[in-house]
Amino acid sequence: MAKGHRSQIKRERNAEKDMRPRAKLSNARVSVQKACFVLDSIRGKDYNEALAVVTYNPRYASTLIRKLLQSAAANAQNNSGLNPDNLYVAECYANQGPIMKRIQPRAQGRAYRILKRYSHITVILDEK
After folding, report:
1. Cβ–Cβ contacts within 10 Å for residue 69, how many?
2. d(Cα 84, Cα 47) in Å, to the nearest integer?
3. What distance in Å separates the CA atoms of residue 96 and residue 76, rounded to the nearest whole number?
4. Nearest CA among 87, 96, 98 for reference residue 122
5. What would the pLDDT profile of 7-21 be if each residue is shown by its tens digit?
6. Strand, helix or coil at 10?
């Protein structure tokens, strides 16, 4: 059984909320595996270095992650009053989103399935 009233439990849970600046992109038209190649290259780096890495990365996901990084830095500057020069990428991850299912007609009336995968990408910054 839970301890306390439901509103008290919610109040305690929300008191421990993570207040680090973040940005989230939902339903990005890129698979989780392909997004993780870029995310692994910027994890733990400071903001300016991470921005340089994704700017010159040839992968499609890097353009999405670059915008996401800039959005997280703007959130840090406007909402928390943090200096972008003191920020680093504390966490970045991609979760699986919805999957569009399409079919590819094949020989003798068969149909092969094509899975168009989406992902939810999250970038969390923190101050050094």
Report:
1. 24
2. 7
3. 26
4. 96
5. 888 888 878 788 899
6. helix
List of long-range contacts for 70-75, beta carbons under 8 Å, 24+ apart: 71/23, 72/21, 72/22, 72/23, 72/123, 72/124, 72/125, 73/21, 73/47, 73/125, 75/21, 75/22, 75/23
Structure tokens at 57: 């990365």
pLDDT in tens, 87-97: 999 999 999 99
pTM score of the predicted model: 0.84
Q: List phi, psi (to 5°) of 44.
A: 90, -10
21-127 is classed CATH 3.90.470.10: yes
